[in-house]
Amino acid sequence: MRSMPRQKSQPEPSDDDVSTPAGAPPPPAASANPGAPVDRSQWARPWAQLKYFTFQPAIFPRLLGQVSPDARPGDLVTVYDKAGQRLGAGLYNPRAKIVLRVVAHGAEAELGEAYFERAIRRAVALRRDVFKLDADTDAYRLIGSDGDGLSGLAIDRYGDTLLCEVYSLGMAQRLPGWLPLLHKLAGTKFARVQVDHDLGSLEGIKPSAFKETNAAAPRLVKIREHGVRYEVDFAEGHKTGFFCDQRENRRAVARFTRGARVLDLCCYTGGFSLCAKVLGGADEVTSVDLDEAAIAQAKRNANLNQARLKFVHADAFAYARQMQTNGGQWDVVVLDPPKFIFTREAPGNHEGRKKYEDLNQLAISLVKPGGVFVTCSCSGLLSLEDFEQHVIKAAHRQQRRLQFFDRTGPGADHPVYSNCLESRYLKVLWARVI
Q1: Which has the closest alpha carbon to 220: 212, 232, 204?
Q2: Closest Cα partner for 323 from 304, 310, 307?
Q3: Which of 31, 35, 144, 209 has minimal Cβ neighbours within 10 Å of its Cβ?
Q4: How many whole angstroms separate alpha carbon 384 and alpha carbon 387?
Q5: Strands 76-80 and 86-92
Q6: Looking at the predicted structure, is the pLDDT value of residue 321 above 90?
Q7: Any residues with CB less than 8 A from the CB of 352 and at least 6 apart, and which?
Q8: Cα–Cα distance, 365 to 400 (Å, whole number)
Q9: Is the dihedral of CA 143, 58, 204, 40 positive or negative?
Q10: 204-226: buried (b, 16+ CB within 10 Å) or exposed (e) per residue?
Q11: How far apart are CA 412 and CA 245, in angstroms?
């Protein structure tokens, strides 16, 4: 698992993501008099009008037209398209990078503030009633921002505690009123609310508003996942302290580790390592991470499961190079590095892509012929196809071939709406190395 935090639990859409996705409704037909002014006098207030036709939930300043003067930061506003047709409803904040977050389209927009309770109930029911996740774990994504029509709010459930990440002023204003409902639906008791300092300042969110809520919540919780136990430290861990998105991939690794030597590069708190040992019966597991706090937590997790793992506090690049020099090889190698790509700008993007190639090249050299290689990317700005090409190039530079047998992503508790496909971020490639 990743040794550094992702920038977002589900990456926020960027200013470049403005094209209308496949399957979106076509723009209304042009009026007989396209030059005629739009009559806004009968529009439901407060309102906001778009400059362009789009079905995207994230509206950046260049996409936004006029806004009614009574619209205040955090308000739920009625959204109209450029032709004056009612499109939906969204949360408005003129000082934010995403000035309008469209949370509802079509008939749902007529519900007003009642929409949010409906969306919350729908999101929780998906995890608990449809997917029945409680049978296997008490740690999962409960609310997935744009993936649940609640843009700007991500909530993970850890035992009896909700970990809430807030990116939107409108969500921050409403969250305290939603917590009793969330606890009732999820069967939880406590909540911790996290607000990124820079993003909070930009949005106008005051973390002090959640001081009392956070003070009442525990710092540590113990969770279960497919029979493996973990301790989550909200104070020391990255982002939410645990990465629920890799749950099904962690379990899948165990299929290949019976009696095997396993290397877990960028192990974070030991998720893949423990599944390989506890569920898969690996003979030997080496877990490597640069983060000293993460290694300490991984050791505690190993003790919780009475599992013996070999921990190495080291940079993944440096460790892999040394093992390459020493001729070390493993039956199964898992590589789950931190996010390397943070921008679409060419220099930063190129640097991140090169890191993926270099680290994958090193990791592939450590896989025995016929061994299994599992490699991951959580960079939302890198497509699955591009990631695959970088991994292929890394293998071919080692005069090795990859026999791909699967391509996966996050679990079902991380759904993606059809009008926000860019919120897909986690990519996992599974291959045998020849």
Answers
A1: 232
A2: 310
A3: 35
A4: 5
A5: antiparallel
A6: yes
A7: 340, 341, 342, 379, 382
A8: 8
A9: negative
A10: ebebeebeebbeebeebbebebe
A11: 9
Q: Omega before 338 cis (within 30°)?
A: no
pLDDT at 237: 60
**Which residue from 239, 6, 204, 208 is spatially nearest to 99, judged by alpha carbons?**
204
Q: Which of 261, 375, 277 has its CA nearest to residue 328? A: 261
The pLDDT assigned to 109 comes to: 86
Q: CA 253, CA 375: separation in Å to the nearest integer?
A: 11
According to DSSP, the β-strands at 402-408 and 367-377 are unpaired
DSSP 428: E
Nearest in space to 86 (alpha carbons), one of 35, 36, 47, 37: 47
| Closest to 259 in 3D by CA, of 273, 234, 280 | 280
CA distance 223 to 244: 11
Q: Are 46 and 65 in contact (CB under 8 A)?
A: no
The answer to whether 221 touches 161, Cβ cutoff 8 Å, is: yes
> What pLDDT score does 13 carry?
52
- The distance of Cα 306 from the centroid of its chain, to the nearest Å, equals 30
Half-sphere exposure of 81 (CA within 13 A, CB side): 19
Cβ atoms of 124 and 111 closer than 8 Å: no
Rounded to the nearest integer, the mean pLDDT of the chain is 91
- CB-CB contact of 37 with 87 (8 Å): no
The amino acid at 297: Q
Q: Would the pLDDT of 161 be above 90?
A: yes
pLDDT at 58 over 50: yes
pLDDT higher than 90, residue 257: yes
